[in-house]
Amino acid sequence: MLSFILRRLMQTLPVLFGVSLLVFSLLHLIPGDPAVLIAGENAPKEQIANIHERLGLNDPLPIQYWNYMWNIIQGDLGTSFRTGRPVIEEIASRFPITFQLSVYSTIFSIFLGLIAGVIAATYKNSFIDTSIMVIALFGLSLPNFWLGLMLIQWFAIGQTPWLPFSTSWFSPSGWGSFQQMVLPVITLGTAGAAMIARMTRSSMLDVLNEDYIQTARAKGLSERKVIYRHALRSAIIPVITVIGIQFGFLLGGSVVTEQVFAINGLGRLLMNSITNRDFPVVQGIVLVISFTFVIVHLIVDILYHVFNKRMKMNG
Q1: Which ranges does the record mark as transmembrane (predicted)?
Q2: Contact (CB, 8 A) for 48 and 35
């Protein structure tokens, strides 16, 4: 197990190198001068030239990239052009918020998606099955920003007489309290729940036709034990892949949700840094998200082995 984990971690190095090179190249293609953004449009040329020299922007791009990678090897992600703070501190102050949002949204997706998928598979081709799949299709189709705005209107600021509680109980912005977490978690986790439900249903239908499931029923086991103890354990393997990929995308794709709910997370920091051409912060965020994504996939591989003992831990 340890050797497998070490091999997979070593395989991430070329991936992170490619990501850093791609992001570095794309950022320098964006029009605009970060020195002008720092000093202001009316700043004298001498001041702008000094900023160029101080930030190393006068060096050729290969030299800039080499210096950046050398600093990363030493554990230094650079300094923010806009705030002057170390990039590690900028990311460390925002990453926990985005990570919590992604974890809670994933838990919501797993809970809702697994239950819906198992029920749909159990009542195959019935009205319940069709209804759940139609709702899942809507969940996949709804844009996050629209769903977030509608939830704010219905549950936070609007007058909704058919609700049994006051809409002012939910908070439309910020992060920290339970009232602030509910709406963004639902917004970000709805599409994931729909995807997990569809995958769970498909996987369960394949497993329920296997011979060992029929044998378990022939032995007199209750339908609940057959479904949850035998069928779901085998059907969960492909669902784990969807959950892992979904968590990675939630971590890097929470920009819109954080903007809608005014959450000061990593996604909002990334958006502001791109606007301000704050190269070190953007590169640092992308590297952190990429590394986290790789770690999530490593955990998925380990869970494969846990749920399927016949699978070998190949690199």
Answers
A1: 12-30, 103-123, 135-157, 177-197, 235-261, 281-304
A2: yes
- Name residues whose C-beta falls within 8 Å of residue 220's C-beta, 6 or more positions apart in sequence: none
Question: Model pTM?
Answer: 0.79
Residues 252-275 have pLDDT tens digits of 767 888 888 888 888 888 888 888
CA distances from 54 to 27, 29, 124 (A): 19, 21, 66
End-to-end CA distance of the chain: 10
User: CA 310 to CA 239: how far, in whole Å?
Assistant: 18
DSSP state at residue 153: I
Helix (H) or strand (E) holding 49: helix 45-55
| Chosen CATH of 94-307 out of 1.10.10.10, 3.90.20.10, 3.40.50.720, 1.10.3720.10 | 1.10.3720.10
Strand blocks (E) in 242-309: none
Q: How far apart are CA 67 and CA 49, in angstroms?
A: 20
Contacts of 207 (CB under 8 A, 6+ apart): 213, 231, 234, 235
CB 68 within 8 A of CB 16: no
pLDDT digits (tens, 9 = 90+) for 169-228: 677 777 878 888 888 999 989 988 999 999 988 888 888 877 777 777 787 777 777 777
155 in Cβ contact with 170 (< 8 Å): yes
